[in-house]
Amino acid sequence: MTAALPPVPWASSQTQRLLFQPGVTANPAGGTILCEVATHPPCRLVVADAATSAPGGTDPPQTSLELLTAANDGVPEAEALQALRNWAEQGRPHPDPAIQTLSLHGVQVVWGPERVGVAAPGARLPLVLPTVLEFVCLEQALSGLERRLARSWPQLEEDSPLAFDFDHRADRRRGDLARRFQEVLGLRGRWAQLQPPLHRPLVYPPTLASQVGERLRERARLPERWESLGSQIDVFQNVYEQCAQRAHDWRLAWKGHTLEILIILLLLGQTLLLVFELFAGREA
Amino acid sequence: MTACRIGIVGGGPGGLLTAWHLQQYVQAPCEITILEASGRLGGKLQTLRFHHSPIPYEAGAAEFYDYSVTGEDPLKDLVLSLGLSITPMGGSAVLLDGQVLAHLDDIEAHSGAAVRAELEEFDRRAADALGRHEFFEADLLMNHSLAQLPGTFASRLERLAQPQARRFLETLIHSDLATEPDHTSVPYGLHNYLMNRPEYLRLYSIVGGNERLIEELVRRLDVRFQMRHRVTTIEARPTGEYTVTAITPGPDGTTSSCTRDFDYVIVALPNPQLRQLCFVGNGVADEVQRHQSHHAHPAHYLRMTLLFERPFWRSVLQESYCMLDQFGGCCLYDESIRNPAADEGVLGWLLGGKAALEHSERPDAELIELALASLPPALQFGTGLFREGRVHRWMAEVSALPGGWKLWSADRRHQPAPHAAPGLFLVGDYLFDSTLNGVLDSAGHVAGWIAGLLETTPDHSRRTITTPPPQQETLS
């Protein structure tokens, strides 16, 4: 617990600061791992304590989250949901459209970009919490990909003419294009690895945890967002594949042209020598 | 070349879907006439409104089965091709002893870990016994699985060691069966249990009311409708034609009869109503009687729909429907969840089987009182918000599939007298799996058959009538 966290709505609640680590190879800060999505490398939610700090190196940036868990025994549903919402909206615009709520069979969940609150009867909180954390992990992983792709659109627009026409000036950008193509393929890989946990078959007979998990995935439209992301990655992949093809074609053409010029020069030299020999022979 | 005359008796989903299929399949010119005894089309698909509110509710079939999670779903394809919007329906809760059991954790808290474990084991065994493919192929299910799984569904439930587990399951599926487990085969009982699994089946309804399917079909049908024509007699004549006699009400309360000749007659009525028709011809009546008796396994529905000032139950019941341990196990629909803009709330009780039959004799007011009293204690405060109630009785309108019952081949089911009356066909949900999807299958089978006959014998009036063999109980 840290002093910077917003006040909690009722006494039995507990808050934690979590770090979402997307695709880190190790757990550099050594915090307790709360949830892990089995991608390669894995996405993790870890508890951030005083010793935890953002890792250096090439690992992607971490996202900080605040998690509130509360036993809502005896608290009316509407009251519990409102309290969670108030907590999640502190310091943010009200009402905040980014903050969503779910209330199902005595469980209330509130989640937004920076805060997640879960309230359930005390005996059932341990059953529900792993499902909510897994959802948070998946949602963060998907949001991270969405953000990365959204940032890349201007660059794609800049690069897309090269998918049609490639010249000697563009050849200087060949290395950058290759790197961006690799990044897109990396994104495609991370996107594909999210499919199994996102499209898990519905559980029957249902458990409270499975129902909450299904509702959260539906409410956050995770399957639809995943599919939409796939379509966007298709566009990137198509453009950079075309760029690669054009660059390759241009390289081949350039080599061919160079060779042709060399041959022409050689033929020209040979012709000049022949003419020279001809005149020299006549004079002799 | 004269146009082929096709008469369809019954303006319910079976009759209309047969006409729809005929329009699609038959290339030769034909005149289709639908004779309907009542003043409305649609039969068990009926969307009504209350006197006190325009909010719609389903008086008949409340939902459609979505098989598209497993394979092709011609009914859903048809609904969507007609431009209708659909909305998914779902519900997993069972109200037992006044408590909402929405999931296994609730069941464990209510009945103990042993009951939970037994239910999980039952579910595993059910899924082992009937895979998704067998579930999808309803005909296959009823043919082959019967041999492997003899006995009634009640015998399967009796194996459960925990009485609470059995009670939970009986409550869960009773209203879907529309009969008692001891009148149901093991496959059909498992079928009705497994339809709760989302990977086997989903449910949906049509936005604006399920009767919109009928409206859209009727708009697209180029057929002659003869309303208030109650068919009394169908005569198979030696010429191969069929004379249909119907009674129509006159303007001054009298009735008159009229006759019409057809080349083909398709009777699309619930099985018990076949007994009310008189079949004339060389042994036709006996053949139809045999057909009717073979399929006479009546199941019943009773629907009570109540309008309330507001949907006061939403804090307890949050899905499209739940199962209630009253009336031998009934389904409680939140009809108003399909109309989120409405202020009022509508709850519908769907009683099935013996309870439906027993309660059908009671007056509406008494049934409405019983419905209100059946609400769990946590919702009793809402009875004061009651405004209006409606009761709809569907006695013997659906069929049970009892254990040990042998299914005839599809042709045999649809053509009751192949020798004496080869142009007489039957269509109905009871010939498949007692669902709207089954009606569509049945209608498609008959329409395809007639289209084939018209292709091969365009001179339809020269079909020959033959003497039936002495015994034709050939079963598939």
Radius of gyration of chain A, Cα only, in angstroms? 29 Å
Structural class of chain A: alpha+beta
Gross morphology of chain A? rod-shaped
Mean pLDDT of chain A: 86
Enumerate how many helices of chain B there are, as a single number.
Answer: 15
Largest interface: A-B, 15 and 17 residues
What order do the strands of the largest sheet of chain B run in, or round the barrel if closed? 8-7-17-18-19-16-20
Topology of this protein?
The complex is a heterodimer of chains A (284) and B (476).
Chain A: E1 14-21, E2 33-37, E3 43-47, E4 63-71, H1 77-89, E5 100-104, E6 107-111, E7 115-120, H2 125-159, H3 174-193, H4 195-198, H5 208-219, H6 222-283
Parallel strand pairs in A: 4-7
Antiparallel strand pairs in A: 1-3, 1-4, 2-3, 5-6, 6-7
Helix pairs in contact in A: 2-5, 2-6, 3-6
Chain B: E1 4-9, H1 13-25, E2 30-35, E3 47-49, E4 56-58, E5 64-66, H2 74-81, E6 86-89, E7 94-96, E8 99-101, H3 104-111, H4 113-129, H5 132-136, H6 138-148, H7 153-158, H8 163-177, H9 186-194, E9 202-206, H10 212-220, E10 224-226, E11 230-236, E12 242-249, E13 255-262, E14 264-267, E15 278-280, H11 284-294, E16 298-308, E17 321-324, E18 330-334, E19 345-352, H12 353-359, H13 364-373, E20 386-399, H14 410-414, E21 424-426, H15 436-456
Parallel strand pairs in B: 1-2, 1-14, 2-10, 7-17, 11-15, 14-21
Antiparallel strand pairs in B: 3-4, 5-9, 6-9, 7-8, 11-12, 12-13, 16-19, 16-20, 17-18, 18-19
Helix pairs in contact in B: 1-10, 1-15, 3-4, 4-8, 4-9, 8-9
Give a structural overview.
- The complex is a heterodimer of chains A (284) and B (476).
- Chain A is of the alpha+beta class and 284 residues long.
- Chain A contains 6 helices and 7 strands; from the N terminus they run ββββαβββααααα.
- In chain A, helix 3 (174-193) packs antiparallel against helix 6 (222-283).
- The longest helix of chain A is centred in the last third of the chain and has 62 residues, at 222-283.
- The model of chain A has no long low-confidence stretch (mean pLDDT 86).
- Chain B has 476 residues and is an alpha/beta fold.
- Helix content of chain B is 33%, strand content 24%.
- Chain B has 15 helices and 21 strands.
- A 7-stranded mixed β-sheet of chain B has the order 8-7-17-18-19-16-20.
- Chain B starts with a strand and ends in a 20-residue tail after the last helix.
- Residues 468-476 of chain B have low confidence and may be disordered.
- The A-B interface holds A 77, 104-105, 124, 127, 201-202, 204-211 and B 92, 100, 102-107, 119-120, 123, 196-199, 315, 318.
